[in-house]
Amino acid sequence: MDGLALSIVLASAFLHAGWNFLTKKSLQKTVFIWWALLISVFLFFPMFLYCWPKAGIDPRGWACILSSSIAHALYFRFLSGAYERGDLSLVYPLSRGSGPLLIPILAVALMHERLTPLGISGIAVIVSGIYVIHLQSFSVRSFLHPFLTMGGGASLWALFTGGAIASYSLVDKVGVATVYPPVYIYLMLVGTWLLLSPFVLLSQRAAIRREWTVNKSTIVVVGFLSNFTYLMILFAMRTCNVSYVAAVREVSIVFSALFGILWLGEGRARLKLTGASLIALGVVLIGVSR
User: Mean pLDDT, 10 residues at a time, over the chain (290 residues)?
Assistant: First the structure.
């Protein structure tokens, strides 16, 4: 990977962790994300118009757009639920790490792909990182704590988020090969916003105006970054190995742990940084094993 591509991917990772940090600080997470998606729809509409002539969408492409929109709507709902219940330094590493953990497993089960020894090692390292990030201390007495807490609250919502990431990643792999990527991403964005709207308008209506009044500047920033960071990744993928880009991108897991610990005052710093680093390492191993 050349220096320019590496810089772009690292910047994207930092900004991705950054918009998650801003989401964690919001009042009502689902409403905040709903507003941010709406802003994205307006901000990136000129890009969509410019790229539309290159779209060439066939029925298979539309099916991918619909499937990805559903998976992304679930992703944002689960992510919101996780942030409402737990720390950024727990939720982000767990959700971003469990997605790449599930993808090779699903690929083996559904696409009959084979795992390499390096890929298996990466899975083991991610599982170790997930375990460590749930520890209360480096002591024998805390050994069973992760097994007692991993199935509830924020951890469960974060694991569901990881499942949604694995789902849309597999769909998008087919989708961007069928539909021109900027058009695909924009239509998926519109579909995601439309699918989230009934939930927000019916059950969160009272929070809509308040969220905009309190966080409108942050909403605009997140609305831009949530789409722009993925476009940065697509640009980097044009210049170097896709697996390397995907692997380096996961340094955002470490950034998120640092943001939560340093700026939100979240506890168990050593354990979370150690666990987040292991998860990021495992994702890298899976990425370079392909």
Answer: 79 94 96 97 96 91 96 96 92 84 71 75 84 69 52 82 88 86 93 97 93 97 92 75 69 90 89 89 76
Q: What are the φ/ψ torsions at residue 137 (nearest 5 degrees)?
A: -165, 165
Instruction: Please name the amino acid found at residue 158.
Output: A
pLDDT of residue 146: 46
Q: How many domains does the chain have?
A: 1
Q: Please, are residues 239 and 9 in contact by the beta-carbon 8 Å criterion?
A: no
CA distance 77 to 73: 6
Are the beta carbons of 258 and 15 closer than 8 angstroms?
no
DSSP 116-148: -HHHHHHHHHHHHHHHHHT-SSSSGGGTTHHHH
Give 60-114 as a DSSP string.
Answer: HHHHHHHHHHHHHHHHHHHHHHHHHHS-HHHHHHHHHHHHHHHHHHHHHHHH---
Q: What is the pLDDT of residue 35?
A: 98
Q: How far, CA to CA in Å, does 187 sit from each of 85, 137, 214?
A: 30, 45, 29
Domain enclosing residue 106, as ranges: 3-288
Q: What is the pLDDT of residue 145?
A: 53
Distances (CA, A) of 220 to 35, 40, 43, 51: 8, 8, 9, 23
pLDDT score, position 67: 97
Distances (CA, A) of 270 to 31, 134, 154, 254, 257: 33, 12, 20, 12, 10
